[in-house]
Design a protein that fits this description.
The complex is a heterodimer of chains A (393) and B (382). Chain A is of the alpha+beta class. Helix content of chain A is 46%, strand content 14%. In chain A, a hairpin with an 8-residue loop joins strand 6 (198-203) and strand 7 (212-223). Classes of the chains: A alpha+beta (393), B alpha+beta (382). The structure holds flavin-adenine dinucleotide (FAD). Chain A: InterPro entries: Acyl-CoA_Oxase/DH_mid-dom, Acyl-CoA_Oxase/DH_mid-dom_sf, AcylCo_DH-like_C, AcylCo_DH/oxidase_C, AcylCoA_DH/ox_N, AcylCoA_DH/ox_N_sf, AcylCoA_DH/oxidase_NM_dom_sf, Mycobact_Acyl-CoA_DH.
Chain lengths: 393, 382
């Protein structure tokens, strides 16, 4: 055991900090930090700057732009990126489809897709969920039927995040309707969003924003060589992908920033003759959240330092569960600090309100999603119960 | 203590439920408005016509001579159907006038407010400030020799008492819900080191922001009485919003229960997963504790409109249960609960707004904490 980072890791951390705070433009980072609607251009610009410096996809195989970092280094990289409010590489590209293609794809697919995916020349979206296949993903029904050297896809995906910006979608489709188990008939297909027969319909969420969509497939013809891995083995790929999705999911750096900002807001908000931060109940809540956040960060570090090899640690479910809860707690506390100001939902031209206060409530409501997507918190608890504690059912 | 509704109260509940159902906003497809809802004039007229604004006020000023229990019954039904009007705000403003105004002002002003001819809302919040019943940055001045000057202490009161039209207010109030729909505002403003109540109808309003710049105002009663009047007026507003929140929870829980019964995953209804049904049971516990507390609040205010303890306890219980029920309602629905097309998220948004209206959970806990010395143990029956 050792309390401090090794000299080598400390130097690595400093190097990351320097890069993120000097090489990524401040205005871009400020826009990201202030929340609100996601700007596709900002995400693209950020990822391209990172990629040019070899920092967009460090966990990929070295051959495709990865770095042979330790898990701890990868954690430090994420942490510093979040602390500097750098828009992170698009998760669909960097954490999901990229590693899948690198692991399961043909040489041709790797050459065709990986460089463009790392540089966000292709914007990917995730077509897994369907109206009747949410937590029970394996019951998905979107079908793909082989016709000559093309798959003909019919069905509907939903909750497709940022699908409105996407160039391509990676989808789970049913290719073997007669397979003995529903998990066995699924394949992993790459589909160009410009293919005729695809319709994207926006879904408005309760914060008023538009980040998810429904995607309809009506006789969409997809070249057969866009199937990744073996036909009917899509479920294995999906499990690999979802496991990766959970690694690095506790956005400790982001939560830290949000909590630090909240502290600043409370110190500036006047209450009685003093400030809100001087109110005992407010101060106590900050102390509590900082302590819980420290426990989470220490657990992240412990898990990161321990995990070896490619297999995601089942403890990553702890991080997803607790990370989403703490993130929600901080946004919840932020509306409390905004107090009456949280009743306004936007920053009108004519206002004395500060912009953070005007987005406090929509942000709080929007982040209710964090405990639903990427494997809901109930699903995480089941994974902990069965995978770690050996409790079935 | 008896929590059963009598026949008249049941009839009121039925009538308001019916009115609310007729005026409930629909979740439509596509561009659904989310967030703070605009004042709905149609629902407002219906509410006024049914006499709901007049419920807790005396017949001498145009009131219905009912009680705060009836307010709780009515507001619960409005909340259940998500009817968006300034009901709580109008009751608060009327309460401020009823408890703070002179006899003459009451007689002159209240009838129009209580029959809905005029919409008056309170303006408390100041930008960059936590919730407070006190005013800080909005100040009252008496007109001096040509130029306005700040007035202090008892000299101030001399000036303000009865010198109607000779007072001006300066500063910003924000956010003031429904300010853009109101004819007049009841504004808290600083008078020396105290807070007074003023009636204003010439403010510059933009959205929820109210700008006062030497704006003429009428003092409501005297600064001596303002603190007590504010407490009673705000109590009435808190009763209305806590009851509205009760209605919102009362709607969100059955929707969630129904969803657990019908939504299938893994080949079974979600209700087959005990972890979810147990959480629905916890939501029910929260809801019923909230119901008892709000009904008690209604009865307590009928007996003593200044009762800050019953009111703050209700606000705390509603704040915490509203958060619990609202968050769980979304979570147990999964993705669908996050959408603007589905009512559960709207209820949760409203519960969130209510928690931050008329003081949040922390403010009310702090007020209760400050009064711990007043009693040895909790005693509800004496
Ligand atoms: C904002 C947002 C963005 C998303 N982005 C994407 C995306 O880009 N691509 C994509 O494919 N999907 C996406 N999703 C979908 C997401 O993965 C699903 O919402 C999630 O899997 C839950 O499925 P569901 O919504 O159908 O809820 P359901 O599965 O119907 O679940 C409803 C409730 O029941 C619980 N539950 C379900 N089964 C069990 C069980 N066995 N035991 C205990 N509890 C259970 C759930 O935890 C939840 O609380 C997104 C969702 C949201 C809200």
């Amino acid at each position: 055991m050792r309390l401090q980072l090794s000299d080598e890791d400390a130097a690595f951390q400093q190097q990351m900090r320097d890069f993120f705070t000097t090489e990524i433009p401040a205005d871009l980072r400020e826009r990201w930090a202030s929340g609100g609607e996601v700007s596709a251009d900002d995400i693209r610009e950020s990822q391209r700057l990172l990629n040019a410096a070899g920092l967009a996809v460090p966990h990929w195989p070295v051959e495709w732009g990865g770095k042979d970092w330790t898990q701890l280094q990868r954690h430090l990289y994420l942490q510093e990126m979040q602390a500097a409010s750098v828009p992170p590489p698009l998760a669909f590209n960097a954490s999901m489809v990229g590693p899948v293609i690198a692991t399961f794809g043909s040489q041709e697919q790797k050459e065709r897709f990986l460089p463009a995916t790392a540089n966000l020349d292709i914007w990917w979206c995730q077509g897994f969920s369907e109206p009747n296949a949410g937590s029970d993903l394996a019951s998905l029904r979107t079908e793909a039927v082989l016709d000559g050297d093309e798959w003909v896809v019919n069905g509907q995906k939903t909750w497709t995040t940022l699908g409105q910006h996407a160039d391509w979608i990676f989808a789970l489709v049913r290719t073997e309707p007669d397979a003995p188990k529903k998990q066995m008939g699924i394949s992993f297909l790459l589909i160009d969003m410009k293919t005729p027969g695809i319709t994207v319909r926006p879904i408005q969420l309760i914060d008023g924003g538009h980040e998810v969509n429904e995607v309809f497939f009506d006789n969409v013809r997809v070249p057969a060589d866009q199937l990744v891995g073996e036909r009917g083995k899509g479920w294995t790929i999906a499990k690999f992908l979802l496991g990766n999705e959970r690694v690095g999911v506790a956005p400790v750096g982001t939560i830290k920033r949000a909590l630090a900002s909240a502290k600043g807001y409370a110190a500036a908000a006047r209450s009685g003759e003093g400030t809100l931060l001087q109110e005992p109940l407010v101060a106590a809540r900050f102390a509590e959240l900082e302590t819980q956040l420290a426990a989470l960060e220490l657990t992240v570090l412990r898990v990161a330092a321990n995990s070896r090899g490619e297999k995601p640690d089942p403890a990553s479910s702890i991080l997803k569960l607790r990370g989403s809860q703490l993130q929600q707690d901080v946004f919840e506390f932020t509306i409390d600090i905004a107090g009456p100001a949280s009743l306004e939902w936007q920053q009108p031209d004519d206002t004395d309100l500060q912009s953070w206060a005007a987005v406090a409530t929509p942000t709080y409501l929007n982040f209710r999603k964090a405990s639903i997507y990427g494997g809901s918190n109930e699903v995480q608890r089941s994974i902990i119960a069965s995978g770690i504690l050996g409790l079935k059912g | 203590m008896d929590f059963t509704f009598d026949d008249e109260q049941k009839a009121l509940q039925d009538a308001v439920r019916e009115l609310a159902a007729r005026n409930a906003p629909a979740e439509a497809h596509g561009d659904v408005p989310v967030g703070p809802a605009a004042h709905d004039p149609k629902a407002w007229s219906a509410i006024a016509e049914m006499g709901l604004l007049a419920l807790p006020f005396g017949e001498d000023v145009g009131g219905a001579g009912a009680s705060t229990v009836e307010v709780a019954i009515a507001a619960t039904e409005l909340g259940r159907a998500r009817v968006a009007t300034a009901y709580a705000e109008a009751l608060t403003a009327a309460g401020l006038i009823a408890f703070g105004g002179s006899d003459e002002q009451r007689a002159k002003l209240l009838p129009d407010l209580l029959d809905g001819t005029s919409l008056v809302v309170p303006a408390f919040a100041e930008p960059g400030r936590a919730w407070s019943l006190e005013a800080y940055d909005v100040t009252a001045s008496g007109a001096g020799a040509g130029s306005p000057r700040s007035i202090r202490g008892s000299e101030a009161e001399e000036k303000l008492r009865g010198v109607q039209g000779d007072v001006t207010l300066t500063g910003t109030k924000e956010p003031v819900p429904y300010a853009d729909a109101a004819d007049k505002l009841v504004v808290t403003a600083r008078v020396g080191d105290r807070t007074g109540l003023f009636l204003v109808d010439g403010a510059t309003v933009s959205g929820m922001r109210v700008r006062l710049d030497n704006t003429p105002a009428v003092a409501l009663g005297s600064v001596d009485d303002a603190a007590r009047a504010i407490r009673a007026g705000v109590n009435l507003g808190i009763l209305a919003v806590t009851a509205e929140a009760l209605g919102a929870m009362d709607a969100a829980l059955p929707m969630t229960v129904e969803y657990l019964k019908t939504r299938k995953q893994f080949g079974v209804p979600l209700a087959a997963f005990q972890t979810l049904t147990q959480r629905a049971a916890d939501m029910y516990v929260s809801l019923e504790l909230a119901r008892s507390t709000v009904l008690y609040e209604g009865m307590a205010l009928a007996a003593d409109p200044y009762d800050a303890t019953a009111t703050s306890r209700a606000k705390v219980v509603i704040g915490q249960s509203g958060r619990h029920v609202g968050q769980e309602a979304i979570q147990l629905h999964g993705g669908i609960g996050m959408t603007a097309e589905y009512a559960v998220g709207h209820h949760t948004a409203r519960l969130t707004a209510i928690e931050h209206t008329f003081g949040d959970t922390r403010w009310h806990l702090a007020r209760l904490a400050g009064a711990l010395d007043d009693h040895e143990q909790v005693d509800l029956l004496t």
